[in-house]
Every structure is written in C-alpha cells, then in structure tokens.
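--- STAGE predict ---
source: upstream dedup step, 1 unique chain passed
mode: sequence only
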Amino acid sequence: MKLNSKKVLVKKSAEDLCVFLSDVKNFKQLMPENTSKFEVINEKAFVFALKGMPEIALEVKEVNSPNSVILGAMSDKLPFTLTADITPIDETSSEVELLFEGEFNSMMAMMIKSPISKFIGTLSEKMSTL
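--- STAGE serialize ---
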C-alpha cells in the first residue's frame, strides 16, 4: 500500500527542515489533535497513539540530508516506512511530501487506509505552519 500527502510549502530551508524532521522530539508538534500518547523512546525513536488506534513506534531509519528523512515502524507486525521527501525551493523555503509505504493484507489495508491518509495529511499541514 502506498499513500502520498499533498506537497506543502515550508518556510524552512531544505537543510533546516531535514534537521527538524531528524529530531524525533519535534514530531510532537506535528501530531494530530486526537493523539492520546506521544513519548520519545530514544534519540532516534518515538511511540505515539491516536485515539481508537494501537500504539505505533517509529524510528529514524535513514537521513539523506537535505533531501529526505525516512522513518520506519519498529515492529514487524505493521511493517511500513514514512518518508519525508524534501525539495529545496530557495534559501528560506522548501517543499515536502510525505510518502507512506507498507505491506499489508487487503483487509488490514482497507481498515487503515483512511486513518493513515488523515494522519499524513495532518503532519504535512502542520509542517506548512512551521
């Protein structure tokens, strides 16, 4: 299953946005209103839960500065990646698109498609206000 957020303009250079997204503590300010838990596990990982959904632990898997930050699930139960694809616009702004990719059976994919789409949409919207 692959899902994309819309591309949003962020008033940060590509380098600054990449550094921001590489620091897992910063994801707290990007989380949706219905976040029931957010906890930093270590400098590369955090766990969060949205109301009505199980907890998900994410860790920074790869940073390709200033072009992308790849987060991945820490559990093999829901294997997926969330990639922030960053495009420089000028010295003070960049564009970002979130790409969600996961291997799920069709029933699971049907159940999580809508909540995950809303989740990555909210993350990208909040990035546009940074």
